[in-house]
Amino acid sequence: QVQLVESGGGLVQAGGSLRLSCAASGRTISNYAMGWFRQAPGKGREFVAAVNRNGGTTYYTDAVKGRFTISRDYAKNTVYLQMNSLKPEDTAVYYCAACGSVSCPNLSAYNYWGQGTQVTVSL
Questions:
Q1: Which residues contact 110 (CB under 8 A, 6 or more apart)?
Q2: Starting at the edge strand that comes first in sequence, how are the strands of the sheet with 18-25 ordered?
Q3: What is the model's pLDDT at position 91?
Q4: CA–CA distance, 21 with 7 (Å, rounded to integer)
Q5: Residue 6's pLDDT is what?
Q6: What proportions of the chain, in percent to the nearest 5, are helix, strand and coil?
Q7: What number of other Cβ atoms are within 10 A of residue 7's Cβ?
Q8: Predicted local confidence at residue 102, as pLDDT
């Protein structure tokens, strides 16, 4: 079992930055691809970013490319999401997730989820 705990959310003005952290326990996450997802009020959960097991490849949804950066720290068993140039449409609950499969093409491939952290971007 992998337990994931997100932190770092909060209220920020448009154009500001936040760094989300996802601390894992129970198992090392070096054997997992890691992803960030978000869910805005009244909407479904959507993919934001992911990083593969060795950290060499990252993926982003088009809406955040060039503004968000996903990274992982193996020593700390933690994954980060650096969010810059935030926009009101980035407002959502952000979830960290771990995928133990060879391929992680969508949300359903992720085995473990955190409880989420709220990000609110004001005008």
A1: 35, 37, 97, 98, 99, 104
A2: 3-7, 18-25, 78-83, 68-73
A3: 98
A4: 5
A5: 98
A6: 10, 50, 40
A7: 14
A8: 83
Place of tokens 């009244």: 42
- Beta strand pairing call for 10-13 and 68-73: unpaired
Question: How far, CA to CA in Å, does 101 sit from each of 3, 16, 18, 92?
Answer: 17, 35, 29, 27
Count other Cβ atoms within 10 Å, centred on residue 22: 27
CB 51 within 8 A of CB 57: yes
Cβ atoms within 10 Å of 56's Cβ, excluding its own: 7
List, for the chain, all residue ranges whose pLDDT scores fall below the cut of 50: none
Output the pLDDT for position 69: 98
Bridge partner list, 69:
82
Q: Which two tokens stand for residue 38?
A: 């978000």
Residues in the chain: 123
